[in-house]
Specification:
Elements (H helix, E strand, L loop, with lengths): L21 H25 L8 H27 L7
Helix pairs in contact: 1-2
């Protein structure tokens, strides 16, 4: 019997176990209003998966979509006004 050996070193979970950097955490915090608005929209859509949407459900989805669009607009405007390197 011929033994089969790997030609490359093993990849372990420890090599991929890194914490997010401060810049990554700041980016997540910067996008948090959009993330929360998208979660609300997803929750509204999930409620109508197994049954027809009622008028109240349609209103909830419509309002959640408006919040997502407003959060995207605000995020885009904040990002556009921020210059690289902290210049204003």
């Amino acid at each position: 019997m011929i033994p089969i050996a790997a030609l490359q070193g093993l990849v372990t979970a420890a090599s991929l176990d890194f914490e997010p950097s401060a810049a990554e955490l700041d980016a997540i915090e910067h996008e948090m209003p959009l993330i929360l608005a998208e979660v609300d929209l997803l929750d509204a859509q999930i409620t109508t998966i197994d049954r027809p949407a009622r008028e109240l459900d349609e209103r909830r989805i419509r309002r959640a979509r408006k919040r997502v669009m407003a959060a995207r607009r605000d995020l885009t405007n904040r990002t556009a006004t921020m210059q690289p390197g902290g210049a204003a």
